[in-house]
Write a structure and sequence with these properties.
Blueprint: E1 11-13, E2 20-21, E3 25-31, E4 39-46, E5 51-52, E6 55-57, E7 61-74, E8 78-82, E9 86-89, E10 95-99, E11 105-112, E12 117-119
Antiparallel strand pairs: 1-3, 2-5, 3-4, 4-11, 6-12, 7-8, 7-9, 7-10, 7-11
Length: about 120
C-alpha cells in the first residue's frame, strides 16, 4: 500500500501537448503509472475555453468531474457536466472533453495502463 500526498506531486503544464487547444491545461499524475499495472490516473484542469481534440482510447476511460463546468462530447452530442458527475467513455468511442467558455473545469481521468490514445483532428 502507498499513501500519496497529492500536494507533493508536481503539476505539469500540458498546454503544448498536441491533443489540447484553446487555453491553458495542466496535468497532475495521481498514481505513478510505472508502478501500477491496473490504471493510469491524472487530475486534468482546463482553463475556461480549453479542451482536447476529438480522440479515442484503446480501453474504457472514466472521468470524475471535481470542479467547474465542462462539456463531454461525442460526434453527435454534447453533454454539460459539473462537479460530482462521472463519465464512462467506452473503448473506441470518439469524443472530446473540456471547459465551457465561462468556467474552468477539472476531472480525474482513469484509464487502463497501456491504453493508447489516437487523436483524430
Amino acid at each position: 500500500m502507498r499513501i500519496i500526498d497529492n500536494s507533493e506531486v508536481p503539476i505539469e503544464d500540458s498546454t503544448s501537448a498536441p491533443i489540447f487547444f484553446g487555453g491553458t491545461v495542466s496535468k497532475q499524475g495521481l498514481v505513478d503509472d510505472s508502478n501500477s499495472k491496473c490504471f493510469v490516473s491524472s487530475l486534468i484542469t482546463f482553463a475556461a475555453g480549453a479542451r482536447n481534440k476529438f480522440h479515442k482510447h484503446s480501453s474504457d476511460q472514466l472521468l470524475f468531474v471535481t470542479n467547474g463546468t465542462g462539456i463531454v462530447a461525442t460526434q453527435n452530442e454534447e453533454f454539460v457536466v459539473t462537479e460530482g458527475s462521472t463519465v464512462h467513455v467506452v473503448a473506441g468511442e470518439v469524443h472530446w472533453h473540456g471547459a465551457t467558455k465561462e468556467s474552468s473545469f477539472s476531472h480525474i481521468t482513469v484509464t487502463l495502463a497501456g491504453s493508447t490514445t489516437e487523436i483524430l483532428e
